[in-house]
Amino acid sequence: MKKFRKLFSLTMVAVMAMGVLSSCGNDARDTFMIGGIGPLTGGAAVYGISVRNGAQIAVDEINATGGINGKEIEFNMQDDELDAERSVNAYNSLKDWGMNILMGTVTSGCCVAVAAHTAADNMFQLTPSASSVSVIEGNDNVFQVCFTDPNQGIGAADYIGQVGVYADGGELVSRVAVIYDSSDVYSSGIYEKFITAAAGQPFDVVAVEAFTGDSKSDFSVQLQIARNADAQLVFLPIYYNEAALILTQAAAMDYFPVFFGCDGLDGILGVENFDTSLAEGVILLTPFVADADDARTQAFVAEYQRRHGEIPNQFAANAYDAIYIIRDIILHSGATYTMSISDLGNALKKAITEISFTGLTGDNMTWRSTGEVNKIPKAMIIRGGVYIGL
User: Fold this and answer.
1) What's the Cα-to-Cα distance from 31 to each of 35, 46, 220, rounded to whole Å?
2) If you compute the radius of gyration of the chain from its CA atoms, what whole number of angstroms results?
3) How many domains does the chain fold into?
4) CATH number assigned to the domain comprising residue 313
5) What is each CA distance from 343 to 39, 98, 143, 335, in whole angstroms?
6) Is residue 389 part of a domain?
7) Burial letters for 124-150: b for 16+ Cβ neighbours within 10 Å, e otherwise?
8) Is 390 inside any structural domain?
9) What is the pLDDT of residues 141-187, one digit of tens each?
10) Which helix (H) or strand (E) holds 381?
11) Is the pLDDT confidence value at 18 over 80?
């Protein structure tokens, strides 16, 4: 009898322990679990860190005001080091963690790799900054916050040709060179549309020079060709690390054209050991201008500076908007955290095509079922070591 009582007591303890563990697990999932993926270390870490920081501010704000229908958001950002295989591994780790919505990835190449897996799971994926059209092609579950590479290429050609850019001495730019990364989907996508759009503009493309991921440390040949062609403006649809090298090497050659880029140049002022005075006058298209005078932008910039001691870039702003977009489409759809990943994905895919969103990076943004956002790029120039809206 004593043995039976002892066995019964041990059994009840085990059952109760399992119940406690089960209860803890359910409590932990009483939230919307949003994952993020991007480079938090390595050469492109400025992008990923900015996305993480911007998203976290939005998450904290939403949770502080009651969450989403009373349910808080948990946010978990994983490092992919700008590597597609690591990005897929991060996705699998986040699924094990309990993710049911992905806000990512940060860069286009990694996003293409992960999108194949989110599509198979029908997980809703909203990338804050991956701008290649290949990210959304064939994947009805993937949507973008940033404008696409083709839009950036067309927008850049339109700006140079219609708004006009002035070279040193006050002459309107009429001769343009392009230096781009032919091995990168982001850079190639912008370049191709830029060249097409430039054909109808009042400027000539006098030189086009490419480089690849295996040869991105010495740009003296490309710069010399641009200089020999008397290019007054060099269009750089590339990332900020390579751009910093190009500006440094151009200065060493005593070649000072106007440099014009897209959102990939946002972050050039933070490149380690880069003489930021060389970026004076650089123009870039971006969805976010930190010195805008609207209250929403000023509040975000102030909070970002309070937390991180620096002015946020457009990657941070896109991620901030992304979290609020997710909140809005959850509210619009009536989706709940208890839904399966696929059912939640279906609800959010439909909802995002039905809303209009105004945030830091655009007014009245809407989405096509193809995943592309409708928004207008803005232009800014670097003056005195800060970004200023044009």
Assistant:
1) 12, 29, 53
2) 24
3) 2
4) 3.40.50.2300
5) 29, 15, 17, 9
6) no
7) bbbbbbbbbbbbbeebebbbbbbbbbb
8) no
9) 999 999 887 888 999 999 999 999 999 878 999 999 999 999 998 89
10) strand 378-383
11) no
